[in-house]
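Recall from the previous lesson that a structure prediction takes nothing but the amino acid sequence as input. Here we apply that procedure to FAD-binding domain-containing protein from Vermiconidia calcicola. The sequence below is the only information supplied.
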Amino acid sequence: MLPSELFDALDKACPDVTHAGKSIDAVTGERQDGMRGPDGSGQKAWNADRTVMRKILLTGLDDHIEFGKKFERYEFSDDNGITAYFVDGTSVLGKMLVGADGVRSSVRRQLVPEQVMLDTEVRAVFGKTPIGDGSVVPEGIDQGITVISSKPPPHPEVKLFCDGMRFDRSRTNPGVNNVDLPEDYIFWVLLFQSSSVAISAQELLSDKFGGEKSLQLAEELTKTWRESNRAVIVHADPSAVATLAFEMARPDLEGRIGTSTSTTDCRVTLLGDAAHPMPPVGALGANAAFEDAAQLAELLAVAGQSQCQLDEEKLRGFEKDVRDRARRALGQVAGPGRGLLGMKPIEELKPSTLWT
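The prediction returns the following C-alpha cells.
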C-alpha cells in the first residue's frame, strides 16, 4: 500500500520488537519472567511510534489533505455523487465517502444509526516517560512488555503496561521524509475499572480533563505501589498523558457493517474503528484497520483505472471481509483479552452512553 521508499523509511524508523516480557508485583517488586510479547514465529512485527508513522504516511499528500474540518453530514446527489458537509458551512462533492473517523464516527452515526457500541467499563491513562539515562525506572522495564499490577482492596485490579521505544538512529538519517526521531521513551498504559474512581465518565473524557489531571489520576491509582514501580508514571511528560475509555462493537457484527440493514449504497462505507471499535489488545484494532484500508485501496485503484465507481457486489464483499476480520479480533478481545483488561463478560456489558 505504501511506496517502497516510504515503507523502507517506516521500517527503519521502528524500534526492534522484543518478544520476551515480564510481570512485576506492584507492592513487593517480585518479578516473573516468561511473558510473551508479539509472536515472533509468524509475520514480522513493527513497534511504531504513532507520530513518526503518521508523518511518514502523510508524506506527499499535502495537496490532498485539509485539517481542521469537522464532519456534519452527507447527502447523495442526483449525479451519482455524494456531498460531505462540515460544521463550518463548507462542503465537498465526490464519488465516494469513506468513514475512517474513529470510535465516535459521525459517518457511522448517519449510515448505521442503530449500531450499538458497548461500554467495557475499562478506562485507561496513556503516557510517555523519557528514558534518559535509565536511572528513574526499574531495570529492564524498557525491554519487552512489562506488566506491573496489584489488587488493592476494595477496588478491582489496576494494571500498568510498559514497553520501551529505543530508536536506532544509525538506520535512518535525521529529518528523512521530514521526520525526526523522538528521544527514547517508555510508552505506558494504566488500566482500571470505571468503578475504581469517583469521577464520572463524562468528566474523565472531557477536554478539561487534560494531561495534568490524567497524570494526577494515575498517581492516585498507584499511590500504594512501591516507588520504583510507579516511577514511570511519576516522571512522565504531562503533555503526553491522556485518559480514554474503551468501547467495543458487538462481536456478532451483521449486515451493513454492524447492522441488519440490507441496502448497500456504493457511495459510502466504513473502515477501522469507525466500523468496529475495540479495546487496544495486542494491536488487534490497528491491524484490522490497516487490512481494511489496504483492501479498499486496492479495490478503488482497480475501479479508478477503469474510470468507474466501485460496484455493489465488490463493496458487499469488502464489508463482509471487514466484518469477518472484526469478528475474529473482537472474539479475541472478548475471550483471552478479557482477562488482560479485567473486563466483564460480553453479555454483562451495557450499551455505551459515553458520548451522548
